[in-house]
Amino acid sequence: MSFPLLTVTAVVPAAGAVVTAAVPAARRTAAKWTALAFALATLVLAAVVTARFSPGGARYQLTESHAWITAFGVRYELGVDGIAVVLVLLTAVLVPFVMLAGWHDADPLETSDRRWRPTQGFFALILLVEAMVVIAFESTDVFLFYVFFEAMLIPMYFLIGGFGDQAGAHGEDEQARQRSYAAVKFLLYNLVGGLVMLAAVIGLYAVTAHQLGAGTFSLPQILHDRANGTLTLSTTAERWIFLGFFFAFAVKAPLWPLHTWLPNAMGESTAPVAVLITAVVDKVGTFAMLRYCLQLFPAASKWATPVILVLAVIGIIYGALLAVGQRDIKRLIAYASISHFGFIILGIFAMTSQGQSGATLYMVNHGVSTAALLLVAGFLISRRGSRRIADFGGVQKVAPLLAGTFLVGGLATLSLPGLGPFVSEFLVLVGTFTRYPALGVIATLGIVLAALYVLVLYQRTMTGPVKAGIEGMKDLKVRELVVVAPLIALLLFLGVYPKPVTDVINPAVKDTLSDVHRTDPPPKVTVPAVAAAKENAK
Amino acid sequence: MSATAAAVHSLWTTRALADTAATPAIPTPHIEYAQLSPVLIVFGAAVLGVLIEAFAPRAARYAGQLAVSVVGLAAAFAALVALAADGYAQGRSHVAAMGAVAVDGPALFLQGTIVLIALVATFTFAERRLDPVAHGNRVDSFAAQGSAVPGGEQEQKAVRAGFTTTEVFPLLLFAVAGMMIFPAADDLLTLFVSLEVFSLPLYLLCALARRRRLMSQEASVKYFLLGAFSSAILLFGIALLYGYAGTVSYGGIADVVDGTAKLTPALANTTGNDALLLIGGAMVVMGLLFKVAAVPFHMWTPDVYQGAPTPVTGFMAAAVKVAAFGALLRLLYVVLPGMRWDWRPVMWGVAIVTMVVGAIIAVTQTDVKRLLAYSSIAHAGFLLTGVIAVSPSGVSSVLFYLVAYSFVTLGGFAVVTLVRDAGGEATHLSKWAGLGRRSPLLAAVFAVFLLSFAGIPLTAGFSGKFAVFKAAAQGGAVPLVVVGVISSAIAAFFYIRVIVMMFFQEPQPQGPTVAIPSPLTSTAIALGVAVTLVLGVAPQYFLDLAGKAGVFVR
Amino acid sequence: MNAYAPILVLGGLGAGFAIFSVVMASLTGPKRYNRAKLDAYECGIEPTPQPAGGGRFPIKYYLTAMLFIVFDIEIVFLYPWAVTFDALGLFGLVEMLLFVLTVFVAYAYVWRRGGLEWD
């Protein structure tokens, strides 16, 4: 038995959560450093995982497999493909930045009560979320995935509800009420999604138990048995079970019209927690569409594709339009995210290799770019004590560094060429055009709108005369620069040279597409040069 | 008696004939003391407890009762383990005491669960650190003198004298013994007698709360009246089933249902009469559904759970459910499997209504104990989905769910006893606001219990729910699973609401305090947490145990 | 549906009997009321008025009645055992001793806790 690298990658942050939570109340700073150390250790491990992964090799690598609950046919099975590797690395990269950005977010206002230890709780919960997300990416057993897919809601719920932003437009009581509303909304939406998926998971078990004699949740085994014909899902069963799975992922992702929890959750939580939601946890939803919906239920995925694509495009346009109209910085970014998730889902279900590579790459780029934009926005909001766009103006004169990084984050969000998201958005659109030109055209409108909301946001907050309350605004501190600079560097790198990432992703995408029995459509447009060459040949 | 004699003399008979007829051929009954030893030990301990009450000086009673209860229950558990090790846990089975009591896997599993529940409940019964010291005496959750008028002079005198009702321990043991026989009963009369044996002590225990005595007595009367009503229905059902089959033994009735019984003249007249079977079976099942608190037989649950002393509520919520579901399973799987096409649609309906009503009404509750009462109703519905499966995996999933549910319930009610204000336990939900700020550990523990009730993965509640839903889906009851999932979502809402109150709301200025319990209650709570996490993360061992136990003897 | 017909008949008969009894009693019975007749019937004790404000409910009557029933039932079991003593032999003796013993435990409890004192 080889070294259980994947398990360790998830266990380290989990252990970190326990250790951090155990730090005495008075030693807050020690707790922070402990948590950061564990997060960095996880990053190192994730880097090792990436290094050990060979893109051209077996489909699932670094696999581990142990019996867990034999009565349910559940195994503890881990394994990563190219998509999972990239997302594990993304998670591990983002979490230390999240921690650094939220360094002072959970400092208690009064320190008299010895048993109240919010700081320890905050950092422990972040590590717990990281552990659960990592294991969800790594698992190749549907049940194991489901367990952590659901369980991660609980720490996330406490992060949203327990550590809110103090910068709302209302009084403190109203703020607390809003925050707990947002947390409950987040939890209930996702819990309902998860419970519907539970019914589907049980259905999957019943089908496998009926046909194979013993129920199984193992993804490789189910794929294998389906390939050799031992396991056949009836059309009806496949569609119902697919819907159960997809519903849960669509809530998590979030897909229009199941998105309404996201603006609340992101608006009320602190910027680092919002990053955790949109850049890390939501990625599990889109990832699961790729890994579970498409691979387990290829026929049903094809059957549902038209509806999903339409919903995705509606999401793109709807999110972008609402972002334009927002008066709250964080809610604006939330709606922008909804629009971007529309692109990701569009890419996944266009079922072309460019589309899916683009979607996967988009998950990474969206994670990094949203993190950069949100974290800078968080610095901005905490300085002013408000998140209303109208309260800002002329920041670039007072804090040029802050404004500059904000601009870069914004430009990444609107997919400026040269920055990461451009490549992925381009790939998604190309992938969509080859099969669904009309949808591609409409989706492109989303880019135009993105330019609108980002630039208007920048113009209102950063340019113009310096508003009251902005005069004394301090520029970025060293800690904040340490957070932002690497993220921006990463965006630039991914924008100029995405090949290392796509090299890892592409074989996995090819495997997924072959599961769905789809190949890229041949180019239909007659390229003039080719036509001319043909003429010449005659 | 010869036929001619009977034809000639229908009113009297001759001496010679009577003498020959009366020659008794009563076979000496034999009782398998070894196989019944767990129950007998508990009964013995209960009788010993009564003697302690009669002869021991007042000061020595508490310690004596506690010792007798704990030793008795531990010995009973040891006897159960010995029986299980003897092969009864894995398919060996026997019907003891002249066909009255079955000794088989499910019976032993359920009895073991009940004994362990009782052991934990004994700890919470014996807790004497929570209530403020009254006139120099440490007191528990029970009335100083049950017969005194609430608030009257007699009661005050009893409180001043430091009286405590130590009778609760023998009462608990009697109830436990009845519950142990209930799921093992192999004829309808034993079923009825054991039902009464465990019900009567519970009626008494419900009336013995130290605080809010009127409410407690009201709860007791309500429970007693409705309980008596349901007993009567059960008994009527038993009579009809006897009329149908000419026997009260489970196996005998099942044979008649299947049509494999030898037709005696008595049977020949009634055996075709399915009306007796249908009505009788329905009435017996109704009596049991009352005990498991399934809708529409659930009306008593919230009032009784709220009024009864909280340790009693915890015990009742856990143990009665285990015993009654055991009896229900045996009845449906041993006596009426031949009728499953008749009872399954009805039970479908009951399960759906129970899940949905329990979950929906719970949403509007403002009292922790009532909330847990409605949640226990909803859980009865989840358990019924497992019962409906009619398969070995159905049995084992219900057994597993019962273990998971009961220890979490015990722990949950134990937590409720700790949150107190001047009037005793502060059960109104608004008082729980901000508890997470004041005592994070307690709030976190309660949150774990609530998450387990809600069926969040990595808790016992999830494993249990998955097991019963899986069994139901494999039995073809997919719509039931869907309803179950939907009502889980509704139920999750109100569990989450309590968590929101505890963690995200500011504490009230005159909020409750959290009492520091003795190791007794702490043990109960810690056990609850341990079971929640172990059954959530590594349930395999217990699933195996339940799986091996899953065959009834007939 | 036929199988369920008897339950309807049974219900009908039950309701009919109740209605018949009440109606016939009110039609045919002589009506000469006095105070005692109008009181609610509680065997043996005055149901009303209750002593107000903390008085005690006299339960001695019930206690005695219950004890009587307990021992009465004990006799009911003892008698057939005595008749078939030969056939049941040692087993019967042991079981009956256990039975008598448990009843006496309850008796001892009542006696020691003052249940038999009439004040």
Automatic annotation (TrEMBL), chain A:
Intracellular or extracellular location(s): Endomembrane system; Membrane
Transmembrane parts of this sequence: 6-26, 33-53, 82-101, 121-137, 143-165, 186-207, 240-258, 270-291, 303-325, 332-351, 363-381, 401-424, 436-458, 478-497
Keywords, alphabetical: Membrane, Oxidoreductase, Transmembrane, Transmembrane helix
InterPro entries: NADH_Q_OxRdtase_chainM/4 (IPR010227), NADH_UbQ_OxRdtase (IPR003918), ND/Mrp_TM (IPR001750)
Keyword ATP-binding in annotation: no
Enzyme Commission number(s) from the entry: 1.6.5.11
Membrane topology, as annotated: Multi-pass membrane protein
One Pfam assignment: Proton_antipo_M
Presence of the UniProt keyword Membrane in the record: yes
Name under which the protein is recorded: NADH-quinone oxidoreductase subunit M
The species this protein was found in: Streptantibioticus parmotrematis
From TrEMBL, chain B:
GO terms of molecular function: oxidoreductase activity
Residue ranges of every copy of the NADH:quinone oxidoreductase/Mrp antiporter transmembrane domain listed in the record: 185-490
Subcellular location: Cell membrane; Endomembrane system; Membrane
InterPro entries the record matches: NADH-Q_OxRdtase_suN/2, ND/Mrp_TM
Pfam families in the record: Proton_antipo_M (PF00361)
EC number(s) on file: 7.1.1.-
Spans traversing the lipid bilayer: 34-54, 66-85, 105-126, 161-182, 188-209, 221-245, 275-300, 312-333, 345-364, 371-392, 398-419, 440-460, 480-504, 524-543
Main location group: membrane
Keyword flag Lipoprotein: no
Keyword Transport: yes
Membrane topology: Multi-pass membrane protein
Reaction(s) this enzyme catalyzes, per UniProt: a quinone + NADH + 5 H(+)(in) = a quinol + NAD(+) + 4 H(+)(out)
Function as written in the Swiss-Prot or TrEMBL entry: NDH-1 shuttles electrons from NADH, via FMN and iron-sulfur (Fe-S) centers, to quinones in the respiratory chain. The immediate electron acceptor for the enzyme in this species is believed to be a menaquinone. Couples the redox reaction to proton translocation (for every two electrons transferred, four hydrogen ions are translocated across the cytoplasmic membrane), and thus conserves the redox energy in a proton gradient.
Subunit and partners: NDH-1 is composed of 14 different subunits. Subunits NuoA, H, J, K, L, M, N constitute the membrane sector of the complex.
Annotated protein name in UniProt: NADH-quinone oxidoreductase subunit N
TrEMBL record, chain C:
UniProt main location, coarse: membrane
Transmembrane segments: 6-27, 61-82, 88-110
Catalytic activity, as annotated: a quinone + NADH + 5 H(+)(in) = a quinol + NAD(+) + 4 H(+)(out)
EC number(s) per entry: 7.1.1.-
Compartment(s) where it occurs, according to its Swiss-Prot or TrEMBL record: Cell membrane; Membrane
Keywords from the named record: Cell membrane, Membrane, NAD, Oxidoreductase, Quinone, Translocase, Transmembrane, Transmembrane helix, Transport
Membrane topology listed for this record: Multi-pass membrane protein
GO MF, any single term: oxidoreductase activity
Top-level class of the enzyme under EC nomenclature: translocase
Matching InterPro entries: NAD(P)H_OxRDtase_bac/plastid, NADH_UbQ/plastoQ_OxRdtase_su3, NDAH_ubi_oxred_su3_sf
Subunit structure: NDH-1 is composed of 14 different subunits. Subunits NuoA, H, J, K, L, M, N constitute the membrane sector of the complex.
Family matches, as HAMAP family: NDH1_NuoA
Function, in words: NDH-1 shuttles electrons from NADH, via FMN and iron-sulfur (Fe-S) centers, to quinones in the respiratory chain. The immediate electron acceptor for the enzyme in this species is believed to be a menaquinone. Couples the redox reaction to proton translocation (for every two electrons transferred, four hydrogen ions are translocated across the cytoplasmic membrane), and thus conserves the redox energy in a proton gradient.
Entry's family note: Belongs to the complex I subunit 3 family.
Protein name (record): NADH-quinone oxidoreductase subunit A
Organism of origin: Streptantibioticus parmotrematis
